[in-house]
Specification:
Elements: H1 2-19, H2 28-47, H3 55-77
Helix pairs in contact: 1-2, 1-3, 2-3
């Protein structure tokens, strides 16, 4: 589950970078919910980790939060949220 959260976070960050390309900013409307699901998956992975190392889960959580934040900022600056 921890590796899944890391992979999900990496895909969210890749989607964020693609959403920064001009004329592809609308992709953030898909990437923000994708990042939200990644936050949930990372939270579950953190909660069920127990005594295992939690590095992958934390990295996935941070990546998803960053992707969601900057995707929202990109939508606001590109006038996609009105």
């Amino acid at each position: 589950m921890q590796l899944l959260s890391l992979i999900w976070g990496i895909l969210a960050v890749v989607g964020m970078f693609v959403g920064f390309i001009p004329c592809l900013g609308a992709l953030n409307w898909l990437n923000i919910p994708f990042s939200g699901v990644g936050i949930i998956i990372s939270g579950v992975a953190l909660g069920t980790a127990g005594d295992q190392p939690k590095g992958y889960s934390m990295a996935g959580l941070v990546c998803c939060i960053v992707a969601m934040f900057f995707g929202f900022i990109r939508l606001v600056l590109g006038c996609g949220v009105l």
